[in-house]
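Posting this for the archive.
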Amino acid sequence: MRAKAGLGGAASLTDPKPNEFGFRVTEASLTNEQYHVPPQFQPQLAGRRLPVRNASGAAIGEVLITHSGAASGQNEPFGPKAGDLFRITVGGEELQVSLICG
């Protein structure tokens, strides 16, 4: 029930770098198109619209990070489905996304 409601918190990554975080797509996050940004990244990202690149470095869209730490606009560039786990790398003025498992 927690996973369906999107209450599972940030997804865990194996050995994340200081500029990385993960998110697991839940049915609720997919429907609402809102994903949690961990608190340590919120001061840097909140209130910003950032370009998004895929693992190959190609531009795939942009994402809006709200002041409350919710990322939206990711369904279009990511093409997620419930259960997917993504690695987000914060790099200056952009984000890079790669699918870990799904």
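The radius of gyration is 12 Å. Strands lie at 20-24, 34-36, 48-53, 59-65, 70-72, 85-91, 94-101.
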